[in-house]
Design a protein that fits this description.
This protein has 171 residues and is mainly α. The chain is built from 6 helices and no strands. The chain has a single domain, classed as Orthogonal Bundle (Arp2/3 complex 21 kDa subunit ARPC3), CATH 1.10.1760. Helix 1 packs parallel to helix 3, helix 2 packs antiparallel against helix 3 and helix 2 runs parallel beside helix 4. The two termini are 20 Å apart.
Length: 171
C-alpha cells in the first residue's frame, strides 16, 4: 500500500512540475519530458508490470489534460514502461548505462510515434525539420536529466524495499 501511495505521489508531483515549473526551463523551444524518465526508471527498478501501470497513468494524465482524445499517450507510455521493464529486470540497477540507453531509445520511440500520429497523418511531411527541432533536442534534454532523476528514484525505491523487507521479515 505504501508503494502505491509513493508511486502516485511521484507521478502527481512529476506531472505538476512538468506542467508548471519545467515550462520555464525550455531549451531551443523544447521542454524536458520527465514523465518518460520516471516511466523508464520504474520499468527498470520494479519490472514490466509496475512500469506499464505507471506509464499508463502518466499517459492518461497527459491525455486527459492536454489532448482532445484519450488513449494515445496512455498506450504509448504503457508500452514504454512495459518494454523497459520486461527484458532488463535482471540487470544491475546501480548501473547508469542501462537507464541512459533505455531513456534515449524510449525518447526516440516516443517522439517518432508522436510524429507519425500527430503530424504525418495530417500531411505535414517535413521530417527533417521535426527531427532537428523537436526529436533531437528533446532526446538530448531527456538524457541530461536522466542520471539525476534515476539516482533520486533509485534511492526512493531502495528505501521502500528496505521498509518492505523489515515489515515482511523476508530476509
Amino acid at each position: 500500500m505504501l508503494r502505491v501511495a509513493i508511486m502516485a505521489l511521484i507521478l502527481i508531483v512529476n506531472f505538476v512540475l512538468q506542467t508548471t515549473l519545467f515550462q520555464y526551463i525550455e531549451i531551443l523551444g523544447v521542454k524536458p519530458n520527465t514523465a518518460l524518465i520516471v516511466i523508464v526508471s520504474y520499468g527498470i527498478l520494479r519490472g514490466d508490470v509496475e512500469g506499464a501501470v505507471l506509464g499508463f497513468f502518466s499517459g492518461f494524465l497527459t491525455d486527459v489534460f492536454f489532448n482532445g482524445y484519450i488513449g494515445l499517450y496512455a498506450m504509448l507510455c504503457m508500452l514504454i514502461g512495459y518494454f523497459c521493464g520486461k527484458p532488463f529486470k535482471d540487470f544491475y540497477k546501480e548501473n547508469y548505462f542501462l537507464p541512459l540507453s533505455l531513456a534515449a531509445a524510449s525518447s526516440l520511440a516516443y517522439h517518432f510515434a508522436i510524429y507519425f500520429t500527430g503530424f504525418l497523418f495530417r500531411g505535414k511531411l517535413d521530417f527533417s525539420f521535426y527531427f532537428r527541432s523537436i526529436i533531437l533536442p528533446g532526446s538530448v534534454y531527456t538524457l541530461i536529466l536522466t542520471v539525476p532523476m534515476y539516482s533520486l528514484l533509485y534511492g526512493v525505491n531502495k528505501k521502500l524495499e528496505d521498509i518492505e523487507k523489515t515489515k515482511r521479515k523476508l530476509f
